[in-house]
Amino acid sequence: MKSRLLTSCLCLAAGLLAVAAAPASAQDRVYRCGNEYTNQIKGRSDCKLVEGGNVTIVRGTMPATVSERPVRSSAAPRTASAAPAAPRIDTPEQRARDADAKVILEQELRRAETRQAELLKEYNNGEPDKIGGEARNYQKYLDRVAEMKAAVERNQSDIDGLKRELSRHR
Asked: Cα(32)–Cα(47) distance, rounded to whole angstroms?
């Protein structure tokens, strides 16, 4: 009777140990290799061990497979510039949209060029007029000049981008 009781206690203890150890062995070491998490390094040198908790993986949406994509008729040939799933727009409507986009870009370019002329006039080749307490506080003046220079460069970058975009519409 005692041996049966001892055996059942040992079995119960072994079972409890197995249950307690199961969560610890459920997740092996996890490594981060760039943007990928894995438990197998496979000879990569950019992998680092992730410590301090479990890793949860949330899968994103998968791209549509070939069989799920809409079938195109031979009457509407696919061009290289059109996206595979992009809706087709008839030519007059697309031309009207392109014309509207061109007008908007030209307006933005004129506005940016006007702003650039104002900024350059105010900047005065790096020597703008001192205002307020800048005569006594030279660092304040230097900070304002640096901000003006950055604004001129940023606006020039905008102008260059608008010109590039307009060249695509011509």
From this structure: 5
What pLDDT, in 10s, does the model give residues 105-152?
999 999 999 999 999 999 999 999 999 888 889 999 999 999 999 999
Distances (CA, A) of 113 to 64, 107, 157: 45, 10, 11
Q: Which one-letter DSSP state was computed for residue 69?
A: S
Q: What angle do CA 155, 131, 133 make, to 5 degrees?
A: 125
CA proximity to 166, closest of 89, 103, 76 = 103
Question: Above 90 in pLDDT, residue 73?
Answer: no
Cross-strand pairs, 165: none
Count of all residues that appear for the chain in the document: 170
Nearest-Å Rg of the Cα atoms of the chain is: 34
* Letter string b/e over residues 54-70, b meaning 16 or more CB atoms within 10 A of that residue's CB: eeeeeeeeeeeeeeeee
Of residues 42 and 165, the one with the higher pLDDT is: 165
